[in-house]
Structure formats: C-alpha cells, structure tokens
Specification:
The complex is a heterodimer of chains A (144) and B (227). Chain A is α/β, with parallel strands linked by helices. Chain A contains 6 helices and 5 strands, in the order αβαβαβαβαβα. In chain A, helix 4 links the parallel strand 3 and strand 4. Chain B has 6 helices and 5 strands. The C terminus of chain B is likely disordered. Classes of the chains: A alpha/beta (144), B alpha/beta (227).
Chain lengths: 144, 227
C-alpha cells in the first residue's frame, strides 16, 4: 500500500511539474495567410500577449508546418491561391494526425453562408476581417 | 387587362362593324382599332400584334400587305376565288387566309385568338430574356462588388491592426503622433462600420427577394457568433 501511495504522490508531483512547464512554454499559433503583411500584422498582435506566432504563406505546406511546429491553434485565411482555407480546414479535420488542433478561419468572407460553410468544413472558430486586436485575441483565447 | 392589340384594316364598313361586334362578345378582347386603306400609313406608325385585312379597294391589297412588318401576324379575309390569292400566298408565306363564307367571322375570331395568344407568349419570352440579361448584368456587378469588398476588408485589416500595434506602445510616440494614429484608428473603425452597413443592405435586399434564403441565414447565424 505504501508503495502505491508513493507512486500516486510521484504521479501527482510529476503532473504539477509538467503544468509549471506548460505555463512557461508560450502557446504556438500557426498563421496561414498568403499575404506576408497580414501574417506580420497578426504576429505583431499576438506576440505582446505571450503567444508564439509562426507564419506560413504557402497553404500547400500546412501539414508540413504543423508536423514541424506542432502549433496549439491554427489561424487560417480562406481566400488563398491554389488551396483555399476551406479546403485546408476540411483536409486537416479529416486527418486523425491533425484534427485535434483548433482551426480558426480568419477571413474577409463575412456572409452567413460563408460562416455556415466554414463550420461545415470543421472550423472551430471564425473571425472576419477587418478585426480588432481584441476580437482576434478573444477568438484565440477560447482555445489556448 | 388588355395586353394585345389588333387592327382591322378594311374599306368595307360593314365588315369592320360585324367583326368588331363579334369580337366584343368574346371573353378576351384585344385593343381594337379600325382603319381604311386610305388612312393606313404602314407599319412604322402602329405596332399591332395582329392585322385582319378585310375587303379593300381595287389594287390596294398588294400595297397594304407590302407595307406590313414581317413580324406582325396577318389574317386576310378574301373570297377563295380572289385572283391574286395564289400570288400573295407565295409572296407572304405567313399570311393566314380566311375565305369569306357564311361563318367567316367565327373563323377569324378563332384564328385571331390563337395568333394573339402566340403574340402574348412571344412578348413574355422577350420580357423574360430582357430580365435575364439584366440579372446577368447585376450578377457581374455583384461579383465585382464582392471582390472589391474582399480587397477593402484586407486593406482595412492592415490599417486597423497596424494602428492598434502602434497604440500598444504609446510611450514611444510623441503626443502629436499618438493623436494622429488614434485618428487613423477611429476613422478605420468608421469605414468598417460603413462597410458593415453595405453588407446589411445587401442582406436586406436579398431577404426581400428570397424569403427562403433569409430563413437559412437566420438558422445559420448563431453557429459562429461574432465576438
């Protein structure tokens, strides 16, 4: 019984320690947008809040970037050349390796049907451009 | 409501009176006019859907038929043995001939009714084609507006976001620069409000046109509540 208690204590201690580490590591946000200016802007808005933003301009390399960066949340533009955000979202949500990562669509497409379609693709959130800093942060804070 | 017009073109007053009287008894009465060959100036002045040509003065028939627009339906009421009938049939293949027999008025009304229905159907087709062309123009304009809106929204994101970034560190700016950036930020928000109103207008117009679409939007709106 004593051995079991010790183990339980160790486990408890280990969890607390990991939680502390967890709090120290900045939460990584992958920003996928074909416009470097938009990526830079979102990075600038997230960094002061303690997030670790990583930008990607090529939507065809999203899976590769996720595998390398292991982001906590993905901010995904919709209107992009060659592979749009709806496609990317649908494919991520259909892949067991990536489908646990929350995807927030960040787009200028602001009609109800666009939002509905985004939800149909499995998106976890939707932010319409132009957004205020507070709107963006609120959407990200829902997940991390 | 009268939507079709018919013209009785004859020099025989009795023919015009009898046909008009019979037509008055019909359920669907077109707008009726009567004119003699002397007063007839050709198709450029009046645009009836149908012309019923009755007995005319000697030598007037070819002249009258030659002046009628090819798109107008023509019923010629003439005796079966009229000498120029064969020639006229060859020259005007669309000409409908009703022999002047005992029951000519009933036959004319029957044929005229079909001709006017055809004219009305053709008018509706033309109107539909015009509306379709107009809708196509609106669709092009709508697509252009949507494209512009996307570009404006992206530009506004940069404007608003960068102004907010600068305002995050007010200590690094002079009081005048700070005030100017605040003005830029406020104006950017105002432009955003104006763009939102444009979007609302577009939605209202669409809702007015298609209630079922409005229902869908109402149903889908809460899925992603805007923060």
């Amino acid at each position: 019984m004593q051995e079991n208690d010790k183990l339980a204590a160790d486990v408890q201690f280990s969890v607390v320690e990991n939680y502390a580490e967890y709090k120290l590591v900045p939460k990584k946000v992958l920003i996928v947008d074909d416009s470097p200016a938009q990526v830079k802007l979102i990075q600038g808005l997230l960094e002061p809040e303690g997030y670790w933003p990583v930008g990607l301009n090529d939507p065809k390399r999203v899976e590769e970037a996720i595998a390398a960066e292991k982001p906590n949340v993905i901010l995904l533009d919709v209107v992009m050349p060659e592979r749009n955000g709806f496609q990317v979202c649908r494919e991520l949500k259909g892949n067991v390796k990536f489908n646990a990562i929350p995807v927030i669509l960040v787009t200028s497409k602001d009609t109800a049907s666009d939002r509905y379609w985004g939800q149909q693709q499995g998106a976890d959130g939707y932010v319409t451009k132009p957004f205020t800093r507070e709107e963006l942060l609120r959407a990200v804070r829902r997940f991390i | 409501m009268r939507t079709t017009n018919a013209l009785i073109l004859t020099d025989d007053g009795e023919f015009a009176r009898l046909l008009s009287a019979c037509w008055q008894m019909e359920r669907h009465l077109p707008g009726l006019s009567v004119v003699t060959s002397e007063l007839w100036k050709g198709g450029e002045q009046v645009f009836p859907d149908l012309i019923v040509v009755g007995p005319l003065r000697e030598g007037k028939l070819s002249q009258v038929l030659g002046s009628i627009s090819s798109s107008t339906a023509v019923i010629l009421c003439a005796p079966s043995d009229a000498k120029e009938l064969g020639f006229l049939r060859n020259r005007y293949p669309r000409l409908l001939h009703v022999p002047l027999r005992e029951d000519w008025a009933q036959v004319v009304l029957l044929v005229a009714g079909e001709s006017l229905r055809r004219a009305e159907a053709l008018r509706l087709v033309k109107q539909s084609e015009q509306r379709a062309a107009q809708n196509a123009n609106h669709a092009v304009l709508g697509r252009y507006m949507m494209d512009m809106k996307h570009n404006v929204n992206n530009a506004m994101t940069s404007l608003l976001g960068n102004a907010e970034l600068l305002l995050l560190e007010p200590g690094e700016l002079s009081a005048q620069s700070l005030a100017q950036i605040k003005t830029i930020h406020t104006m950017a928000l105002r432009i955003n409000e104006v763009m939102q109103r444009f979007s609302s207008l577009a939605t209202e117009m669409r809702e007015a046109e298609t209630p079922s679409q409005a229902e869908t939007e109402e149903f889908t709106a809460p899925l992603f509540p805007r923060h």
